[in-house]
Amino acid sequence: MRKYVVIYQSVLMENLQYTANIAMGFISYLILIFVFIHLWEYMYAAPGDLIAGYTKAQMIWYVMITEMIWFGARSSTIREQVSADIRGGNIAYLVNKPYRYPLYILAKYTGEWNIQLPMYAGLTAVIGITMVGEIPDFHWITLVAAVPCIVLGMTIHAVFKLCIGMLSFWIEDANPFQWLYDKLILVVGTIFPVEIFPAALQPVLKLTPIYTVCYGPAKLIVDFSAGKYLEILLAQMLYLAFGSVILFWIYEKGGRKLYVNGG
Amino acid sequence: MLTAVKNQMRVCALAVKYNIMREMLNKVTFLTNILFMMFNNATFIVQWVILLRLREDVGGYTMRDVMLLWGLAASSFGLSRLLFSRVFSLPELIINGKLDAYLVQPKNVLLSVMTSATSASAIGDLAYGLLLVCIFCFSVKRLLLFLLFTVTGALIMTAFALLMGSLTFWFVRAEMFASHMVSSTISFATYPDGIFKGAARFLLYHLIPVGMAIYHPVHIMIAFDGRKLLAVLGYLVLLSAAAVFVFYRGLRRYSSSSLMQSGRV
Fold first, then answer.
1. Which residues on neighbouring strands pair with residue B61, listed in sequence order?
2. From chain B, which residues contact A within 8 Å (Cβ)?
3. Measured between beta carbons, which residues in chain B are less than 8 angstroms from residue A184?
4. How many domains does chain B have?
């Protein structure tokens, strides 16, 4: 375990040197939030309207938090490095190191998002309070309670991205599958809360990563309830266990397909 | 003069042809990229079905108009990436001194750079746009206008990416700024202009070229307006001229990264 902590710490320190670069990513985040604020302002004809049980302020905060998670989780390590290591053959060196490759990648990724996410969280708080106002009925304790859900959500996201990246053991380019997963999270998960979908679809959506990665943490911050909290935590733990089994299964299976050309 | 232009166009066409042939070397990957990009774009239909269940229109756009907007945005961006993909990575070429290879060629530097790469997934974008317009709002007149505006939209997006990318000749940090500005064009292009008001609307029609590349053309396809058509064409000429001017001004500041010394050339 200690070796993963060392990897995490070194990536964390490295990322601390590049906070200015991370801050440049704020431009895209601000533009998207700008679009969504305008969109939801248009959709809510009157300020007191409710859509799927959300007020306008709750809906905009929901979108800002899910986008914050999305931008905070952006990482070339889980998106590109795994595929590149497999396609380029670098994996042959990495599998011989005294660590488990998927855990090595997860430690690196954690070091990255531990810097990115707090920066986006600060920005979200500033924009939200200045442009939308405070979250209705918000208590600081809900934010503290939501932290484990955010950590679990970020990890589940990485586990699924890694599973997709490791498809490169079989296909040359796993990017198209990454696009589909990203769009599932972005289009269905970040823009709308699950309650907005038709009742028949909602149980299906609760089985997708959307529920544990985006919806869960954001819902708890904008509309906390103890029952929902336990339900989301349980779903996340089950999801993480399931995802980890799949990840190591793919890794073991894929590792057997590995051959080295030399050079 | 005419022969020189003709030769240059021939070289560009050959460059694009060989770029696509290179992408086709692995046929499975090539086809997967195209098909998955179309699926990827199609996921956004879910978003609009949900939004249009909540209200009859969004920013004055019905489902048909939104599909027209999405189709044009996808096709324009697709055509731009298909023909001039390298423009979108121009900052990387400038920072790493990789323009050297183009400077020694006996043809136009800018066109050589622009046509030196392609993207297979861009074919998926282009095809998706055409498919949308054929399914949701087909008429011969609209299809012809759509093809015209796909070309103007692609040229406006390319010129904007060139202009933003050329700023890297002066500022290294402009690399990320350019990338965010170009991606913002796509973010705005897929939402109706009717939801934006005041200063935001002004920015979209002047600073970020979405208004002229996408919004005006969509309005023209819904209800023809000759003045708007002239405005789009005029804007295209002005933006392209500005982008070419800035690129060549910046090129004077360019210095090689001496790849010869590292033994890579």
1. B58
2. 26, 28-29, 32-33, 35-37, 39-40, 43-44, 46-47, 50-51, 54-55, 58-59, 121, 173, 176-177, 180-181, 183-184, 187-188, 191, 194-197, 200
3. 43
4. 1
